[in-house]
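New to this. Please check this record:
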Amino acid sequence: MSGVLGVLALPPFQIDGLALVWLTPWFIGLRRGSTAPWLQSTPVVLTPVIWSLGDALIREPVPSLALLLALATSVAIATTLVNPCAVRLGALRVVLGGWLFVAGLAAAREIGAPLSLALLAMPAAWATAAVAAFGVVGVDLLIVTLQALTAIGLTETFRCRAMPRGLTLVTTVHLAVLLTPGIAMTKPTQSGVETRSIAAIQTATHPVTRDFMLGDHVLEQWQARQEHLRKQARALDADWWVWPEAAIPGYLNARAAVRAPDGSAQITHGYSYRAPGELQSVAIVSRGDNPTVHIRKRDPLPGAEHYLAATPASPLVAEIDGIRVGVLICSDALNQRAVDQALTEGAQVLISPLNSAYIANQRLARVHQDMAHLQAARTGLFMLLVGNGGPTALLSPDGPARTLLPFYKPGVARVEMPIAQQTQPNPHAPWIIAGTLCIGAAMTTKVRRSPRQTKPVTKRWATAAGLVILLAVLTRISSDDTPPSPTLGVRFAAVMPTTGASHQGAIALIARAFGHPLHWSDIPYDAEAAMRWLCQTVGVQPSRDADAGAPGYGILPAGPALLAVRYESNTGATAYDPRTGRFSSAKDAASQILWLRTVQSTKECR
């Protein structure tokens, strides 16, 4: 029952108020006691998470399973330590179990897992205000204690005994503290005049398009769509342009610089190629003739982004027009350590290019938005999410989210983004939380006797009610939540043969992978001159020291001809023969492949 209620508190349902009661059935069961409480309790928290992950459990199993393991561990520790066979504390053990569960969630956040009970309450106004007042841990403690006290009171009522008045009063106090956080909140200093107009650009580029970008016409159509979006953004006359994650076609080299539009600053994103299997997720901040600033993703998702290098020492804030802008790429906006680093560097506003909508479905993308909203409320700063397929939304630190563009639709939206100061912690908040929790815990000491076991009839009714609610949930699953089929790439996956020298076709194909829409005739006829051109223009050159890794690109000498090679995790090394226009496996010639590395300067090109 608790698991199903947790699902109803999450997208797409988001029934307001369930975040304050969904754990109550679990606490009632915990109050009765069990010989294996961890085994019965694990589905309580796993059900909502599995619902949110959806297809990501299959597409990205490593981070999904790591998240589920972190939750299961938190539940196991909490329920085992408060099991009546080990601790004889009466009703107090139920409250202690909730506190230990919150401690486990806090520990998970420290290692990058964005887990919190407050997440199920987002983006309700009372939840954002409560997080701003008490912090994430404080709100989690208040929520779990409120539900534990409610469960204790209900078990007393089920026994046909009067609920202690003190317990009723304390439960009401917990609810009041949660719903009226303004009494302990220090408002951030905001200027109602100082804003920046931003053109948020949603590209809606399917990942399949990138996979087939080597094909004829695919890169050209991608760039044509980008130019159409630029015209829309230019017509909005915004101060800043913000592109989503993976907006730049092809891979970037170490010297990548993207010129901003005249009169506007620009934040765009691409993947910087270093060597096979070595990429960096890079946001490029530029304005006019000012130096280009590269902001890298701090903590890639384990397993799902194994090809990305972690850059914990890289700055996350760039200055644009005198404003300190924190740029948090995709999951960095959910990572408490990354957000805290941006705050330490003086961020006044947070911007997050992301690509979450194509990982699984809209449910996971909406949960991602709520997780980011939780960080916006915690910091007191506005956060702008600009998604490739969505969500593109403005998150207020003390109010609801404002959706700017629908899912999976390319377009540009202009939004006025207020520039705020970081919320200063309220010195009285810890005392208010500690006092409220201690009073609640002290009240439970008056209720020591374990309640009688629930009658089988009651269990059957509860099971039937749970199944009915679960059926209602399943009927709400819609195929519209899944990403649409790609509109670019599938019909243009073929590559035409080369009638010139083989190295011209091979190098032209590699250049396309790095965003240069070139024909084989654009490549120098002389082989040595062509390799220098590749180094100077694309910024990569063959190396005998580089090892194979996905994704990776290389050159394979095949007699007098040169073949282009691409390495992918699912297919291994695949060679392209420019003379036939066909792709074939290059596993047998793996030792002869010269893999490409980036160069730091054109002086390295010889």
Q: What stands out?
A: The chain has a mean pLDDT of 81. The two ends are 68 Å apart (CA to CA). The chain is about 40% helix and 20% strand.
